Inverse folding.
């Protein structure tokens, strides 16, 4: 039985940011509740990475614009024969609710920025071993609190990110579902095509292919080069069948 591996590649800067935020937030929700020091430090590191991303651009504005764009697309589906209108209306209400939640967020990550412990740890993360007990005694005592107390505080940090995570999850779900997977064939490990204004490429290979894709492109055109996992003995087939979706 072949093991399917899914690769996703953004075709614009906006999608690149969204995929990184999704990647980090999924890690957060998998770590909680924390059980050891390693897990706790992982949470602080992920929160620090998220704050760095939030400070680089206007994520809130981009998400609100995309929520509006997706609502307009749903309006167009209402009068299409055979469409499940109940499902469309449910999606419209979901998008409206998430837009309202996001509008009420003054600044994404503000609660995290104002948290003194997060700020202290964040400034020490780039120092090798910089979170030792003698460097951050306040973190050390916090780690020795009852697990239930720590969990309550951590959950409140994550709850402040829910409006972003909920909106982003819905947006990426709709974008991913907009593209249909189709069988494609590369020649000598190379494939290229028009992107036609797409935001995201989704590519499926099998683990047994022992290859990985190296993608370059933008909203108009993209190119994929397949490379062997083992560069010394791996081979690239003349013709490689793979599955691709432009979303």
């Amino acid at each position: 039985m072949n093991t399917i591996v899914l690769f996703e590649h953004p075709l614009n800067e906006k999608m690149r940011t969204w995929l990184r935020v999704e990647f980090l937030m999924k890690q957060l929700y998998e770590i909680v509740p924390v059980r050891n020091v390693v897990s706790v430090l992982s949470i602080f590191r992920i929160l620090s990475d998220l704050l760095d991303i939030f400070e680089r651009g206007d994520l809130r504005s981009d998400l609100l614009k995309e929520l509006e764009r997706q609502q307009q697309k749903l309006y167009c589906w209402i009068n299409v024969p055979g469409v499940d209108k109940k499902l469309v209306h449910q999606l419209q209400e979901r998008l409206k609710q998430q837009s309202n939640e996001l509008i009420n967020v003054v600044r994404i990550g503000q609660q995290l920025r104002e948290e003194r412990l997060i700020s202290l740890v964040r400034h020490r993360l780039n120092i090798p071993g910089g979170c030792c007990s003698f460097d951050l005694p306040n973190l050390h005592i916090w780690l020795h609190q009852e697990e239930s107390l720590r969990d309550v505080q951590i959950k409140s940090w994550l709850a402040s990110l829910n409006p972003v995570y909920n909106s982003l999850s819905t947006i990426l779900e709709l974008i991913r579902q907009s593209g249909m997977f189709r069988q494609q064939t590369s020649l000598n490990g190379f494939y290229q095509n028009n992107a036609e204004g797409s935001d995201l490429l989704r590519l499926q290979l099998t683990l047994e292919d022992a290859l990985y894709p190296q993608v370059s492109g933008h909203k108009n055109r993209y190119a994929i080069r397949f490379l062997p996992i083992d560069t010394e003995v791996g081979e690239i087939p003349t013709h490689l069948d793979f599955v691709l979706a432009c979303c």
Observations:
- The mean pLDDT is 90.
